[in-house]
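Recap for those who missed Tuesday's class. We walked through two folding examples back to back. For each one, the amino acid string is listed first and its predicted structure tokens come directly after. Nothing is annotated here on purpose, so try labeling regions yourself before you check the end of the notes.
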Amino acid sequence: MWKPKMTIQVPHGVNIHRVTVYSLADHDPAKKQSRLAYLQLVRTSTLTILAGGDDPESTQLALEYHADKLQFAEDLANMLPSGPPAGILCVPSTRDLTRIYFDSIRRRFAEALDLTSTVGRKGKVKGGESTSYDEILADTTCAGSFNLRNIGALLMVDDVFDSGRTVAALVTRLHGSGLPQDSQIDVASPLCVSGDKWQSV
């Protein structure tokens, strides 16, 4: 059963890294959807299909999401533990849906080192159900001048948490660049997709 805080092994089915995920809502197509479902429906282009040729951003779901997204961002920031992480990063994406959540969390943990610039994607693959962890890992880069050896706790911010493949690839690359193997890894994401598939560890 999905919970707002879950400690799990990622990526799903491979179980390489242990992370704790904080999220506001679960997205399960079989259940009634929250306004945060907008994030998943945009990501999968489903909102475009549902719009039936009209502007997807003019749908009722999009309008309701955008009306409340500042509150969602504040709620996500406030649900995180009070102890500040040593480092924080915004998960790289072709969409700009994560930034509002990252900015809200960044304000709360202003003393955390912003490691966003250390990670990136080559852009040769897109995350999706048909994309493997190995493909995402090969597309993920980590480079920068930061000393990661002192990062005992890292917080990643993403718009949607699904299979955990992107997070796992980032953690693998960061470990390879000096992040301690025993660092605590937390993920803050407003929406978790089908959280019922996860088993807490």
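Example two. Treat it independently of the first, because the proteins are unrelated.
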Amino acid sequence: MFLFVVLGLLVYADETQEQQVERLIKLLQGQNGGVRKNAASTLGSIGEGAIHDNSVKKPELHKRIVTAGQDKIAKSQNPQKGREVVIKKSKKGWILLRSGEPYYVRGVGGQIQLQYLATNGGNSIRTWRTGPKTKELMDKADKLGLTVCLGLWMDHERHGFDYNNTDAVQRQFNAFKKYVEEFKDHPALLMWGVGNEVETNYTNPKVWDAMNAICKMIKKVDGKHPTLTALAWPSNHVIKEILQRVPNVDIIGLNSYAGLKDSLREGQKHGWKGPTIVTEYGPNGFWEMPKTSWGSYLEMNSSDKAKLYGERTDLIKNDQNCLGGYAFLWGEKQERTRTWFSLIFNGKNISAGVDELIKSWTNKYPRNQAPNVTKLVVNDKLAEKNVELMPRQIYVAKVNVTDDNSEKLKYQWELRHETVAQSIGGDIEEIPPEVEGSIVKIGTNGTLKFKAPNQPGKYRLFVYVVDTQHKIGHANFPFIVR
């Protein structure tokens, strides 16, 4: 069998045109960026000639060839600028252009299950910092067709960083410059995230000067990707500081939950005229929820949270000055509880919040959806009733769950001490320990007999409901032992 090379691809001499096209189409679906590019070019060459040639017998195949050829012609008439990302003001509002094409961010914050993200309507991930594994992550994202908002973590004053210390500021600047030089031409790079909530409990305005120096350096060294900084809230004070001290930042990022609707307008109210991206969003934050009489936060179940993920994704889409959003968190993190912001558990169990994101991104739900958790009670009482238990007594918990797929469900229960953490801004928290010997009997249909702890104090009961395809629902119940 003879073969030769066309644009970097092996082409077999005795191959029919149809066989060649089908093979090239398969190559287009591969994960190697270089192969995809060459396959597309070769397929486009075939298609360009086929536009005026109806000799191809299969109508569907002919249509696919013609489409590829038309795409190639369009690209030759409108040359793209590589992976350059620019911001443009249109009649309808701000838009992002990537390689000359409109690009709307359907993103998440996190680094796991990227294949699942890419095949279910997501197109971008956000990181908070760079490190030794950043190159590996960027390469993986590119193979999957994902982009990256690459974070440069500016140290916080509340963590002890002194922005009056010029040597420390310069070291931070130099470290970031190395990363910019390394990744500025990476095909997965979408934009630079310079700092995350640096305004939290700060007093030194020099943090803004340091931020501007970093953004200015990025424009000089890179120049092809916009800069962004993520804010906890676009207050009047913060926006005025940015307008005066950080002229080189292009986009304001909004980390916003229950206040999302207001935050989308807040920056404009205080003078920000540029675009925004929602850099974090999801369910109501713990600080936005009611507490028990002893001060424990009441947390929504996974199904109620999921509705908010969907509603808030749609809210973002309807804002003409917003370039998209990154849902939080595509993974798992202890923040008052293990479940509060987590969308994926143990690296594989996917919650209902993801189902709602997919629905907003693709206009349809995945075929298999997470179990629907509706209510968790202890001795028929809701957590809102400030439930007090007696030490060493046996109680019954019940969770109400429905599953549209009629699958076998597995129930996992945990009784843990309530957290004592008072951290802010997403600072690291330890997962509270389990109470040993508390689980008496796991019944059928979501029931549990458990023994109240021996020691007085605050506790929280968790339930996880997992189907056979690693979809998960969850709820928890804070109580106190007197």
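Answers for example two:
The chain has eleven helices and 23 strands.
The longest strand covers residues 471-481.
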